[in-house]
């Protein structure tokens, strides 16, 4: 993969830092490490990798991050030095997967067909160093042509260089290099992020996917957090299917999402993360006992309840790619328990619109009691533009720690009303002996790589369900969205606030009863202006209606629209002012950036087509 840099004549170095490295946390260890690895390298190149250095003035005052073609873009020799320091794990412009579909040295029609057949499956993308599962955010520049014909395969929002990291030192080298050169830094784990926060044009990317260790700790005690029990210490590349399986083998469960390939220990946990177990234990971030983190200064530190407590607070809910790169995360392990699950669906086809919607209206009456009982339901409302038929899908109703009888008793009041309305829905209610089997058998593997849709979200609080009038208002807003052809995905759950959960998790989660998502779609053949207009109208129309009936509530940073207005309030609620302060303190040079992350208001990706995507330079907003 690595293409030699040493053929080029040695280019003059643009970066000359005279600041001596200061590294309060790790002392001289890192400097010694660099010196021993780079014995024969010029000292100004070593400076690129020193911790704690303030970037030169030319970088802190540059309007944009540093890009190819800029005088101060690092020389090939400088990139080669980074490669040495990362044990030859620096990938130079790894090819987009769909290059096999376009003219060029990699063209192979068979391979292209094979890729196209599995393109919407997440397994095809998290194994790739650059692929992000949101091509809309990537800029749509290289997809299999039968999915979207980009006419040519260009890099778009993909990074230029990728560190395939397996050691903390690889991450430290990347952070120091980016900070001291001004090159844009991104962090990619699995690439699931719907907003495309794992990519950036011509950036240096740190790929965390191969931090895969899982260690069971029988007894972890933290008096400040009030925790004394089992835990798992995980590499940040650990995904849902891996940690659930590992926990199951030890007779435990952990809090994670429903999607099987999501990077639970990466972006998910730092961003708050909701779970089929949130009604019992809260968010993913509420489970964190300790992080190992490479800071913006390049130091490897522990962030826990007694060390680097600001960082610990911010990284539990404040979002990924903002305060540091996590290397490992230790989380609470909970007891395993039996779980009851139910799946069913009905449509308006035979019963007509009014009866269908009366069935949905009846369901809204049970959102509070079902969430209170500790259950989680994941359901969709899907309109069909062509037939005018609506479909409701319960996929599934998930009742952890409930017997078949208990779960049935919770569903029965609504089922009786559906029966009275003449709605047939044929529920399958199954009891599983443990959480793992229930999860494994009940959730679909969702499709990824949507090319002409984006999703907005709202956390509807308890107040929206407390009176019959409020429930009626909420229901009619959901119906209106369906009639406007919005595909809706909903989670009826409560997100408990466990003891001592003083962290950066969106305050709006604690009041949540319905976490609601709706999608906007646009024609693939429209101009950028037309697409932008449709996306704006969605925000000003259907999304604004949802905001209007839930004043002060929030949206979830990992399942949201890049165009969510006032995202700081929406994604963090009352936590935002402190997060902004900590961002300035912990990352004063904005080494870390992701669109809609804390402090990202100071920057903007100037995309080539003017749409909200990563295909452009990252520049300061002035
Ligand atoms: C199919 C599917 C199902 C989902 N299900 C759920 C669910 O049930 N519950 C839920 O809450 N969410 C769910 N999500 C949303 C998911 O939580 C987000 O997409 C999340 O960002 C994924 O994190 P990742 O690390 O896998 O992805 P990436 O896209 O690789 O990373 C996401 C963000 O985190 C940053 N990041 C990743 N690792 C690190 C690290 N070690 N240090 C610093 N920054 C880092 C990245 O830079 C990026 O900004 C789902 C998404 C999909 C596509
Ligand atoms: C194209 O890809 C197919 C399938 O992976 C492979 O068998 C074949 O050898 C490739 N053809 C060329 C010319 O490389
Ligand atoms: C494809 O992209 C490359 C690189 O940007 C460019 O040189 C080339 O002209 C493009 N080809 C077509 C047919 O657009
Ligand atoms: C990344 O590193 C892992 C672990 O060493 C290795 O298995 C994988 O092949 C590497 N990927 C690439 C694209 O270099
Ligand atoms: C926090 O981390 C520090 C440094 O590793 C360690 O000394 C301390 O014991 C940890 N605190 C807790 C509560 O585990
Ligand atoms: C139901 O509503 C949809 C959308 O509003 C409409 O297209 C359809 O014709 C209606 N169906 C019936 C049977 O009235
Ligand atoms: C699970 O159910 C048992 C029996 O009802 C109860 O004692 C226990 O507290 C429950 N566990 C959780 C996490 O709610
Ligand atoms: C009900 O669901 C279970 C678990 O998913 C499945 O094994 C079973 O086949 C289903 N039963 C019917 C009748 O569909
Ligand atoms: C969006 O793309 C899909 C193909 O994935 C296509 O079927 C659909 O018609 C497109 N939607 C619009 C509104 O163009
Ligand atoms: C775009 O495609 C739609 C059908 O999906 C068609 O009705 C419309 O005319 C097309 N617009 C343009 C500009 O080609």
TrEMBL record:
GO molecular function annotation: FAD binding; oxidoreductase activity
Domain FAD-binding PCMH-type: 155-336
Keywords of the record: Oxidoreductase, Signal
Top-level division of the source organism's lineage: Eukaryota
Keyword tRNA processing: no
Keyword Membrane: no
Signal peptide: 1-21
InterPro entries: BBE, FAD-bd_PCMH, FAD-bd_PCMH-like_sf, FAD-bd_PCMH_sub2, FAD-linked_Oxidoreductases_BP, Oxid_FAD_bind_N
Family under the similarity heading: Belongs to the oxygen-dependent FAD-linked oxidoreductase family.
Protein name: FAD binding domain-containing protein
Organism: Massarina eburnea CBS 473.64
């Amino acid at each position: 993969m690595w293409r030699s840099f040493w053929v080029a004549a040695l280019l003059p170095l643009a970066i000359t830092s005279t600041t001596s490295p200061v590294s309060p946390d790790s002392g001289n260890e890192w400097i010694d490490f660099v010196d021993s690895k780079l014995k024969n390298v010029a000292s100004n190149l070593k400076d690129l990798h020193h911790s704690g250095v303030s970037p030169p003035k030319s970088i802190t005052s540059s309007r944009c991050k540093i890009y190819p073609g800029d005088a101060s873009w690092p020389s090939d020799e400088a990139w080669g030095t980074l490669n040495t320091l990362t044990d030859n794990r620096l990938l130079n412009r790894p090819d987009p997967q769909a290059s096999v579909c376009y003219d060029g040295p990699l063209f192979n029609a068979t391979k292209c067909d094979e890729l196209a057949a599995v393109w919407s499956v997440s397994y095809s993308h998290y194994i790739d160093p650059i692929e992000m599962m949101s091509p809309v955010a990537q800029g749509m520049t290289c997809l299999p042509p039968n999915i979207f014909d980009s006419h040519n395969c260009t890099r778009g929002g993909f990074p230029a260089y990728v560190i395939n990291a397996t050691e903390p030192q690889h991450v430290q080298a990347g952070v120091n290099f980016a900070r001291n050169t001004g090159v844009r830094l991104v962090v990619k784990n699995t690439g699931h992020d719907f907003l495309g926060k794992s990519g950036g044009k011509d950036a240096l990317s740190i790929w965390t996917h191969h931090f895969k260790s899982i260690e069971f700790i029988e007894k972890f005690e933290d008096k400040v957090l009030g925790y004394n029990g089992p835990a798992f210490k995980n590499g940040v590349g650990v995904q849902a299917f891996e940690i659930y399986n590992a926990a199951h083998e030890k007779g435990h469960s952990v809090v994670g999402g429903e999607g099987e390939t999501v990077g639970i220990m990466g972006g998910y946990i730092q961003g708050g993360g909701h779970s089929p177990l949130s009604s019992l234990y809260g968010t993913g971030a509420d489970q964190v006992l300790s992080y190992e983190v490479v800071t913006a200064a390049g130091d490897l530190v522990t962030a826990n309840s007694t060390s680097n407590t600001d960082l610990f607070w911010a990284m539990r809910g404040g979002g990924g790619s903002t305060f540091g790169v996590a290397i490992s995360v230790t989380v609470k392990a909970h007891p395993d328990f039996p779980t009851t699950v139910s799946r069913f669906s009905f449509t308006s086809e035979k019963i007509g619109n009014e009866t269908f919607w009366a069935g949905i209206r009846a369901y809204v009456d049970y959102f509070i009691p079902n969430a209170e009982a500790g259950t989680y339901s994941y359901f969709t409302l899907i309109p069909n533009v062509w037939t005018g038929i609506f479909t409701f899908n319960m996929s599934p109703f998930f009742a952890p720690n409930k017997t078949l009888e208990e779960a049935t008793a919770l569903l029965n009041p609504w089922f009786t009303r559906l029966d009275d309305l003449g709605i047939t829905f044929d529920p399958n209610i199954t009891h599983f002996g443990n959480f793992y089997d229930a999860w494994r058998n009940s959730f679909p593997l969702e499709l990824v790589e949507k090319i002409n849709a984006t999703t907005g979200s709202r956390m509807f609080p308890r107040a929206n369900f407390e009176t019959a009038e409020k429930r009626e208002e909420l229901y009619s807003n959901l119906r209106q969205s369906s009639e406007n052809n919005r595909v809706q995905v909903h989670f009826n759950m409560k997100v408990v606030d466990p003891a001592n959960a003083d962290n950066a998790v969106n305050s709006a989660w604690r009041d949540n009863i319905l976490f609601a998502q709706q999608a906007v779609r646009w024609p693939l053949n429209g101009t950028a202006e037309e697409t932008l207009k449709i996306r704006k109208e969605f925000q000003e129309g259907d999304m604004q209606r949802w905001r209007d009936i839930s004043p002060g509530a929030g949206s979830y940073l990992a399942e949201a629209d890049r165009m969510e207005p006032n995202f700081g309030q929406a994604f963090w609620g009352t936590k935002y002012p402190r997060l902004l302060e900590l961002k300035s303190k912990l990352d004063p040079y904005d080494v870390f950036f992701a669109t809609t992350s804390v402090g990202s208001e100071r920057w903007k990706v100037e995309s080539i087509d003017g749409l909200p995507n990563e295909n452009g330079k990252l520049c300061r907003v002035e």
